[in-house]
Amino acid sequence: GIDLHSRITYPNGESVKKLPDALIIGVKKCGTRALLEFLRIHPDVRAAGSEVHFFDKFYHKGFEWYRDKMPSTTEGQITMEKTPSYWVTRSAPKRVYAMNPSVKLLAVVRDPVTRAISDYTQSASKRPSLPRFEDLALVNSTVGWGGVRWSVVDASWGPVRLGVYARPLRRWLRRFPRGRLLLINGERLVSEPAKEMARVQDFLGLKRVITEKHFYFNSTKGFPCLLKPDSKSTPHCLGKTKGRSHPHIDPVAIERLRDFYRPFNERFYQLSGINFGWP
Ligand code: A3P
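Above: inputs. Below: predicted complex with adenosine-3'-5'-diphosphate.
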């Protein structure tokens, strides 16, 4: 086997592959790709391009396999990876801890109602015959006097369930101290990317290299896109699969979902010590 915690030497600027120093563990459809792409601007960050799924799917392949999936780094660079399903993988906290108990964890969260719609929109883009969002998120429809419909939220439907952030957070905090997990506000990652990225860089112990001058708001896309002021590369946005337009959802269904999430959101605010102020 390999000594996971052995010191690595970098003779003459040699580059080596390391296990990750930091992980983006979730949450699916909250802006995890944006966070990773923004971080990759930083010269001291090297990250695996695609999701590695080591702690959920490929753990049996071992740490040597995992390390080989990482990009090469030179001295002073940190190694990262993002796989959003780690957030809800029950065995992940223990496994991540076994790799490195002082690893830094990042998770992006956003209003669970928009997250659910985003998740649904992604599925519908692959399966156009998918029923309406309202009919999947809510059950027990009784169309009657006053049109009372969709009385109960289907908490077992994936897109709904994944927005209950409190329980997975508790699992991660059983294994890691609160200070080792940075929660990133997904709404602010869109409205104030540079400010949110300042927090991220501080947390990772990086110099604040990513700043306002790296972002511009692309009004066609409706999202911040990237500029690389010091290079000749052209401005670019995330791909077409990020920032899709969402279908119109019946406001009654939205209200039901808000009521459903309210107590879970409260518990999440308590556990995390942050009031995200979701409606
Ligand atoms: P939508 O496509 O539903 O709008 P993830 O990368 O975790 O799958 O999250 C995708 C979501 O990231 C998008 O969901 C979008 O809302 C959000 N996002 C945040 N910043 C973005 C950016 N700069 N460009 C595109 N999408 C961004």
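The longest strand covers residues 104-109.
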